[in-house]
């Protein structure tokens, strides 16, 4: 499991979530004497087909090669051989594998080979580009110990002694507690017994004090594999281990991030911020660091575009920060403030194009690489002994600000993934500081972002309607206004349509609009009728007006108009109320336009205390509703009635799509240079098929609960929703039981199948149920809690004329 050990990932990854390492054991001539289940998964051969045969039948290695390795001083000194090779699977296909042959010693200096292999295609992108290089594998010493079924050590390699300090002679032939007494050895034996019994590979971590560094506790990460014989039975257990102390130290260095918050971002000078990052990272993380920023950032202009191939602008950066452990920073050919060209087809170009960091643990300086096209950098790398590289993009909100480069020269350990995580966190904090330093020059961009966030990015449509919209702010330069619109899904397949208009323009009106839009969403979630919702919204606007009066800011004027409509596709009725807002336009399927006689109501925040009135209309299927703000119909050249007449003519186009209709209206109406914000929301209504709903009138009798379950089960079977029977029966039982217990009079049960399955139970009580925490001794009080666990969402709403409806929604396909 070489790839798992490199970078210290052992103690953080479940072995089931890491690439499978194939483990096999051969004698000195290459005859397989031990096989593992992971090896079978890699090449497809079971133990019965491999054990006792030459490994050359599977791997591209010959008996002669193994014998030569066993007698070569270089191979003996390195403890084996590592590299990549093409392996043929049992079913005939080939795969590229990372292989490592570890030299094992037994008694009387007998030699065996332990072979570990991993399919390179199964590794992560970071591992594929860095960890599977031959040179890096050679740098990483892996300890190997093989125990028999009685857990006596029969084979080991030299690297194991360097890890835990147990000499080979003291280890061979003994159990681990005999060679290394203590609780830790007994625990490791327990792990090995579990592997022998279960055959499952296990990852474990323990502590050791190797002779090379006895004063420091080292963390050793080990994987235990069950070795199988030709009959498939366990013959022993193999342990491969690696010292992950370096990775632990990298994670401990994350504590420096608290210092980063005080050392990075103390200035609004972007050049100084870049230098602060470099000064902090040296020598904490790297021996040399440079920070290069987009040239435009220094002047507060927009930085690089989003992810994509570098253009001419992005091929030149300005060096903002440099730091080195060496005096005079000999690693940097460029001084602070100088322009730096980005070499083509280099790691820096890849980072700018992909937006992802580049980790190169061992810097590849061989012929044919990008260094051939950049001799200045190649000379600098060679003269300063640069051997390991990190390149991290500096970005915020997916916008590139530059790059940070981390290099090691004197520190022999290569960069690993933990180092990359630390570097990315430091760079992330630097990006925030750079962004704060540039905000003063981006006021217009901030205003546009505010407006985009306050208005819905995508209208949420349900079964009831399909919609299209247009928005034209009066402040065309900044794109900020006080109009808003929304399409809000409600229970029972219903949909709420909202259009509002806040007094004033600009960022203050937009901020108030955002607050009111949030309030409308909250009140809509309570399923309030349109007139009651406007009453609560009026209270909110009056409270905001009082707050603005206390602020003594003359530019903050609070007041608004609003139209709120709820369409029900089951009954094809639309209930609407308005607060000083223009009436909606209703377009029937034939294109005839009318403006319903809807009580105007007072504008929000006026404080006259006049109640709002709601009107219910029945709409033919495929009718259209047009909700708009007064900026669309008002003009200094004519009164509002003329504007409504013009609007009616523009809407009378039954054959056009909603998008085309919106575009046509905006083009036709005199709104080319509006003195007010203009908003248009057009919705086309749909009706549910009668077969999608069913309703029953039930008496208020405890015995009716069983009947309700039976009726619901039959209906679900007709709809092909048998998988929802169990949960729906329980939901109906709880809701009907509560209706019988807490209300009088008849009970109405309704099922609606649209995008979800809605269960509704209506009764004559006006008291809305509430979720409460029942004590263990309570006999009731858990109904709503049970319903909440079974459905996607649930709630209750008051019914016009008295009573309430309690509802619950379930996904039609719970598996999705």
Overview features:
single chain, 816 residues, alpha+beta, 6-stranded antiparallel beta sheet, 5-stranded antiparallel beta sheet, 26% strand, extended
Can you offer a commentary on this structure?
- This protein has 816 residues and is α+β, with helices and mostly antiparallel strands.
- The strands form six sheets. Strands 13-12-11-16-15-14 form a six-stranded antiparallel sheet, sandwiched between helices. A five-stranded antiparallel sheet has the order 2-1-5-4-3.
- Strand 9 and strand 10 (234-243) form a beta hairpin.
- Helix 19 (506-525) packs antiparallel against helix 20.
Tell me which oligomeric state these chains represent.
single chain
C-alpha-based Rg, rounded = 36 Å
Q: How many strand units?
A: 31
Query: N- to C-terminal separation?
Result: 36 Å
Give me a quick take on this structure.
With 816 residues, this protein is α+β, with helices and mostly antiparallel strands.
Q: How is this fold's topology laid out?
A:
Elements: H1 2-5, E1 21-27, E2 32-35, H2 37-43, H3 47-50, H4 63-71, H5 73-78, E3 80-88, E4 94-105, E5 111-119, H6 125-131, H7 134-139, E6 143-148, E7 153-156, H8 158-164, H9 168-171, H10 176-179, H11 183-198, E8 202-208, E9 218-228, E10 234-243, H12 245-252, H13 257-263, H14 270-281, E11 288-294, E12 316-324, E13 339-341, H15 347-354, E14 358-360, H16 375-384, E15 388-396, E16 399-408, H17 417-438, H18 443-454, E17 465-472, E18 483-489, E19 495-502, H19 506-525, H20 530-551, E20 560-568, E21 573-579, E22 585-587, E23 593-594, E24 615-618, E25 624-628, H21 640-651, H22 658-668, E26 678-685, E27 693-698, H23 704-718, H24 725-742, E28 747-753, E29 756-763, H25 783-790, E30 793-798, E31 804-811
Antiparallel strand pairs: 1-2, 1-5, 3-4, 4-5, 6-7, 6-10, 8-9, 9-10, 11-12, 11-16, 12-13, 14-15, 15-16, 17-26, 18-19, 19-20, 20-21, 21-24, 22-23, 22-25, 25-26, 27-28, 28-29, 29-31, 30-31
Helix pairs in contact: 14-17, 18-19, 19-20, 23-24, 24-25
């Amino acid at each position: 499991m070489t790839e798992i050990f490199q970078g210290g990932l052992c103690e953080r990854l479940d072995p089931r979530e890491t690439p499978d390492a194939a483990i096999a054991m051969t004698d000195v001539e290459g005859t397989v004497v031990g096989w593992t289940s992971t090896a079978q998964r890699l090449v497809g051969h079971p133990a019965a087909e491999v054990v006792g045969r030459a490994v050359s039948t599977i791997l591209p290695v010959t008996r002669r090669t193994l014998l030569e390795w066993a007698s070569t001083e270089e191979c003996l000194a390195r403890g084996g051989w590592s590299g990549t090779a093409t392996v043929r699977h049992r079913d005939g296909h080939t795969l590229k594998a990372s292989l490592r042959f570890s030299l094992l010693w037994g008694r009387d200096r007998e030699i065996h080979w332990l072979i570990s292999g991993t399919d390179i295609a199964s590794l992560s992108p970071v591992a594929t580009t860095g960890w599977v290089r031959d040179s890096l594998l050679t740098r990483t010493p892996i300890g190997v110990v093989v125990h028999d079924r009685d857990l006596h050590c029969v084979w080991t390699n030299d690297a194991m002694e360097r890890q835990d300090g147990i000499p080979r002679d003291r280890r061979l032939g003994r159990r681990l507690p005999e060679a290394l007494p203590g609780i830790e050895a007994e625990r490791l034996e327990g792990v090995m017994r579990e592997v022998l019994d279960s055959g499952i590979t296990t990852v474990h971590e323990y502590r050791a004090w190797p002779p090379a560094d006895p004063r420091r506790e080292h963390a050793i990460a080990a994987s235990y594999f069950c070795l199988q014989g030709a009959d498939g039975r366990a013959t022993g257990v193999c342990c491969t281990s690696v010292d992950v102390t370096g990775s632990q130290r990298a994670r401990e260095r994350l504590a420096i991030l608290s210092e980063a918050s005080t050392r990075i971002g103390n200035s609004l000078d972007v050049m100084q911020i870049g230098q602060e990052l470099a000064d902090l990272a040296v020598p904490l993380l790297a021996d040399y660091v440079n920070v290069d920023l987009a040239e435009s950032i220094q002047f507060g202009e927009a930085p690089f575009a989003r992810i994509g191939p570098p253009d001419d602008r992005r091929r030149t950066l300005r060096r903002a920060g440099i730091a080195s452990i060496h005096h005079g920073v000999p690693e940097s050919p460029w001084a602070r403030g100088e322009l730096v060209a980005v070499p083509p087809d280099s790691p820096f170009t890849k980072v700018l194009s992909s937006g992802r960091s580049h980790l190169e643990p061992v810097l590849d300086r061989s012929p044919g690489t990008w260094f051939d096209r950049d001799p200045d950098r190649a000379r600098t790398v060679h003269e300063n002994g640069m051997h390991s590289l990190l390149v991290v993009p500096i970005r915020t909100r997916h916008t590139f600000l530059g790059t940070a480069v981390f290099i090691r020269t004197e520190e022999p350990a290569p960069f690993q993934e933990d180092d990359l995580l630390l570097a990315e966190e430091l760079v992330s904090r630097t990006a925030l500081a750079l962004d704060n330093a540039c905000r003063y020059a981006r006021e217009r961009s901030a205003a546009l972002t505010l407006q985009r966030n306050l208005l819905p990015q995508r209208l949420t449509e349900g079964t009831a309607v399909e919609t299209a919209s247009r928005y034209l702010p009066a402040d065309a330069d900044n794109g900020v206004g006080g109009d808003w619109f929304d399409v809000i899904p409600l229970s029972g397949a219903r949909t709420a349509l909202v259009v509002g208009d806040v007094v004033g323009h600009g960022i203050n009106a937009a901020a108030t609009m955002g607050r009111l839009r949030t309030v409308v969403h909250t009140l809509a979630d309570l399923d309030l009728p349109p007139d009651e919702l406007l009453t609560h919204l009026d209270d909110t606007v009056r409270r905001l007006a009082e707050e603005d009066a206390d602020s003594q800011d003359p530019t903050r004027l609070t007041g608004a108009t609003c139209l709120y409509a709820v369409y029900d596709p089951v009954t094809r009725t639309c209930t609407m109320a308005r607060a000083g807002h223009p009436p909606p336009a209703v377009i029937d399927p034939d294109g005839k336009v009318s403006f319903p006689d809807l009580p105007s109501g007072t504008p929000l925040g006026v404080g006259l205390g006049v109640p709002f009135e709601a009107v219910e209309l029945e709409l033919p299927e495929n009718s259209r509703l047009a909700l708009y703000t007064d900026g669309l119909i008002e003009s200094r050249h004519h009164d509002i009635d003329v504007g409504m007449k013009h609007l009616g003519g523009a809407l009378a186009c039954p054959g056009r799509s909603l998008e085309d209709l919106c575009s046509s209206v905006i083009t036709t109406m005199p709104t080319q240079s509006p003195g007010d914000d203009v908003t248009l929301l057009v919705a086309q209504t749909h009706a549910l098929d009668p077969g999608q709903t069913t309703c029953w009138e039930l008496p208020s009798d405890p015995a009716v609960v069983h009947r309700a379950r039976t009726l619901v089960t039959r209906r679900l079977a007709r709809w092909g929703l048998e998988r929802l029977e169990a949960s729906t029966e329980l939901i109906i039982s709880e809701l009907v039981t509560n209706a019988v217990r807490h209300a009088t009079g008849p009970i109405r049960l309704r099922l609606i199948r649209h995008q979800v399955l809605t269960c509704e139970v209506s009764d004559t009580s006006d008291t809305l149920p509430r979720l409460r925490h029942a004590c263990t001794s309570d006999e009731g009080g858990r109904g709503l809690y049970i319903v909440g666990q079974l459905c996607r969402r649930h709630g209750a709403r008051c019914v016009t004329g008295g009573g309430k409806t309690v509802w619950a929604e379930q996904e039609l396909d719970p598996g999705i």
